[in-house]
Model the fold of this input.
Amino acid sequence: MNASQKERVLIKGNEAVAFGAVDAGCRCYFGYPITPQNEIPEALSVLLPENGGAFVQAESEVAASNMLLGAAACGIPAMTSSSGCGISLMQEAISYMAGSHVPGVIVNMQRGGPGLGDIGPSQGDYFQAVKGGGHGDHRNLVLAPATAQECYDLMFRAFALAFKYANPVMVLGDAIVGQIKEPVRREPPKDALRPEAVMALAKDWRLEGYGGRGEGAAPRLLKSVYLAEGALAGRNRLLMEKYAAMRAECAFEQTDTNDAELIVVAFGSIARIARSAIRRLRADGRKLGLFRPVTLYPFPAEALRALAPGRRFLVMEQNTGQMVEDVLLALNGAAAVSWHGVMPGLFIGADDLTEPILRALKEKKQ
Amino acid sequence: MAEYQDVIMAGFGGQGVMLIGNLLAQAAMEHGLEVSFIPVYGAEMRGGTANCTVVLDSRPIGSPLVREPLSTIVLNEPSLDKFQPRLRKDGVQIVNASLIREELVDKKLRSVCIPANDMAHELGNVKLANMVALGAWLRATGALPLTAVQEALRRVVSAHYARLIPVNAQALEAGYNFARRAAGQEA
Amino acid sequence: MIRVSDSADALRPQPGECLAFDVNPVLNERPTHYCPGCHHGIAHRLVSEALHELGVARRAILVASVGCATFTYDYFNVDGLEAPHGRACAVATGVRRARPDAVVFTYQGDGDMAAIGLAESLHAANRGEKITTIFINNTVYGMTGGQMAPTTLVGQKTTTTCQGRSLSNEGGPVRLAEIMAQLDGVAYAARCALDSVKHVRAAKRAMRKAFEVQLDGLGFGFVELLSGCPTNWHLDPVAANRRIAEAMIPVFPLGVFKDATTTAPADAGQAKEAPRG
Done:
């Protein structure tokens, strides 16, 4: 066993989220228990107090998300996590965060829905995450981890992006990503900002009491209400500019796309399961590739479109058809797109995806 | 050592399938492999089977779940009912012969039928049946050296039960030796 | 639209005039948007005086609510944050946990705090969050136009209880100060009224106490203020004050229901005489 292997720890994706959050500088967690993400609050209830932070088990997801609004408005890295109906209850506060330029980090380990659904894996909250989710026009930056290591790594990016744009960031996992145990190397990604650098991004807007900025400093106000004629229009234009700027943050992973005739587009746990299926089929000589968006909003549309000439695409997702709409928009007719949905709540393996991939390969080229 | 291996471990809740799944995953990681462990909880959490899947590979793991596993460890009859039909034809199953009737075992499949509960009882604790079965699996698949798994016990068994580590190691070894003898008879 | 800065300038002394009275610097000079005879103005001044006299405005963070008091932050020279309807105590929890050195207060109406935000309010209080909450009880939804509040009196007519609130259909008024006093995390719970000079003086003392328990780390500070809403009561301001004395105080008794600085927790729920002005 060499030194680098010794550094790996076998932990769940949920636990990796907790470690990543603390190492990225998270100081406050607010949450309410719901399966399949309970290891996040359980781990943070120990880790945060150990690191001088605050952990509060809230009375509801409504309260938890509003506590996050309060803490994040102070320019302190803070987060919540939930799943399913709990995330629905948080949409009010998420909309306020977006409207007030507040950098909350929300982890959603998706479970099957609608309603109470089940506790199995699902990607059914894609629309809710990437199209805003709450009332009014707003967008969340959305990051989709596929492995426990990525759960750890992406927490650094989540806090950095939340503070850079003063905007809510959602980390969109699912029951598989949260419950899987894998070796994780607990060291900050090379490009990660130091926690102090993240917090410094808040110096122009954070609430701290005006005395914290020197005697005579003007009071600050963070709010989303704009009643004066034209004021809300101006606010929304500002938000649009911010969302446009976020396009610089597009991230994706592409595997074996160079010689591929058919490219599978998938995110999160379905992407990694598809990767196994593709590996197996490539061994039989099938020309297949994988395109995995890591940011779901902004959606890496340009990168996808660049792959379009001469290729076909197959969207695979664990819902009844959501990301496929963004893929169609991105390709805008430049390539044929087919779709395979895995129903929410099912635990599937690579063998369940090989048939649909072969079927898509056989479809006539358009 | 096989390039790729996967196993579904299943039994009643309380038979310790999650513990041996964790132990195998920990040992595989310490052995330098890529590995994933995933528990599957469902509506059948009570009364039916609890199961977990462990995938080992030298490359990063793609799918952590498999519909048709290369190997299984089945500790009770409901688990055999569920997973025997899904086992790959070239796969191997470790069958707890203490609780599973022999006539239910598909003769066309490669099986190691091991009286895990009885052997555990002889070792002084019936709860060691899971370790006995995992020991047999290690021999039957050759996925990891026995010593790697015995070594990993210290990281998986909580400090409270540290005194039980030697007997757990013994149970692993007993299962391993049983499978070796069984292989000898096969040959 | 009236430009606030212009109208504020108009109030400043002109040549030949001298300033005979000035409020404390925690309140700014903007004329409020509240209706004539509304008690929010008095309540704001009491809060500002407590912050000023305790010398904590520089580290104060106001969490505003939704209702007539939504724009509270326009009148206070302190850092401020808007909370969704009912969530002020949860937002304030987040602020105080993130900034343990800040002085955090919420300012909420009866709909915000006792209806939609009852869970957030009670649980923040029960956790003993080191925050101060000012609760304006005027028995009606003001901003939305006079609908029933959780504090509406039995028999009181509102735009959603045309025949008057009935116990059998809508239940009785929620007495929040008494409920707060039952919770271990609450360090101070008082109910005061803003209908008379005497009562306003008592309210000023209570306000200070409600901040002091926060500063001393004793727990949640709570002041309920019985306030007038002449507009939605369809009364003139004097008659509105009379209604507070004659109709509200008999249902919402004034007093200090809990004071961790002077009484053991076992005494909670037994009203002490209101603090003297």
Observations:
- Residues 1-5, 265-269 of chain C have pLDDT under 50 and may be disordered.
- Strands of chain C lie at 60-64, 79-82, 103-109, 132-137, 140-141, 147-148, 186-193, 220-226, 255-259.
- The interface with chain A takes residues 1, 57-61, 63-64, 70, 73, 76-84, 87, 90-99, 102-103, 119-120, 123, 127 of chain C (CB under 8 Å).
